[in-house]
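Hello,

Following up on my earlier ticket. Below are the four sequence lines again, exactly as submitted.
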Amino acid sequence: MDINRTLNDLLVGLFRSITTIEEQSICTGEYRNMTTNDMHVIEAIGTGTPRNMTAVARALGVTTGTLTISMNSLVKKGYVERVRSEEDRRVVLVSLTAKGKRAFEHHEKFHREMIRHVVEMLNEDEKRVLEKSLEGLNGFFRKMQQQSE
Amino acid sequence: MDINRTLNDLLVGLFRSITTIEEQSICTGEYRNMTTNDMHVIEAIGTGTPRNMTAVARALGVTTGTLTISMNSLVKKGYVERVRSEEDRRVVLVSLTAKGKRAFEHHEKFHREMIRHVVEMLNEDEKRVLEKSLEGLNGFFRKMQQQSE
DNA sequence: AAAAATGTTTTGATACTCAAAGCATTTTCG
DNA sequence: CGAAAATGCTTTGAGTATCAAAACATTTTT
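Thanks for your patience. The regenerated structure is below:
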């Protein structure tokens, strides 16, 4: 079962790479003062209609307390806008500023390039196989996660 | 090109799952007081002959200052042993204690299980496609890394 | 109207990170 | 040889990230 060894090494290597490279290639230039965490928060807020803190926190898997801290920094850096909801004044709605949207787009582009690079070397059948494998993996992990809850 | 979108979502989801599940399933039981970071340091030290701080720090991609802090905690928790080298008294050699080796083994087992589960649900062709895709990703990251150096 | 629930922020504590300064030891070279 | 440079590690100072629990404001329930 040598393929197991290979897959393991690949996955481990990939993990190390993704964290470091994503950081290196995203938090640069105009976005130099942005951390990886900032980027993930921006990604979770998205470019649609404003979202409240609880929803974003849940999407990120952190507490709202933690998210408040992140937002403080993002607002100060000019990526995010905070508005109290008029309908329910307990709620805080967050959304991306123009600068925040540019950063979002920058991140998306990184992802698209990454995918393009992988997909480029696969034919249609292989793409479908990859999709199926990844879905299987996702299912497995979802199951594990539910088990431990 | 809707498959690109799907693949991207799958990869992003997968990445999120793996980090949380790894944490949940490793830092438990006997290893409750261990952080993910602790685990990665233990992994980098390995079960072979003692290694010096600089080598371990480089393997982890952190500064030696950061590693010193991690080591303080790991030594206090009883996972790691620190010894000044006799040949070159500037050098500090770190190695896993018996408890540290058990933790290492526990982590390895998690990886093996994960891979086993993944591989189990793929046939030979699918395995090869997955391998090829992961290699593609690795290639992409290597290229990016070289660019930014 | 009082009590409970909800949404967010604040607080207090711990972990992780880096750059730069400091310390001890070894190597280099005049 | 002996001073200067280099090496290996730790400490320091500062910033970010994290959580649980307490505090606060507002809305909903009773």
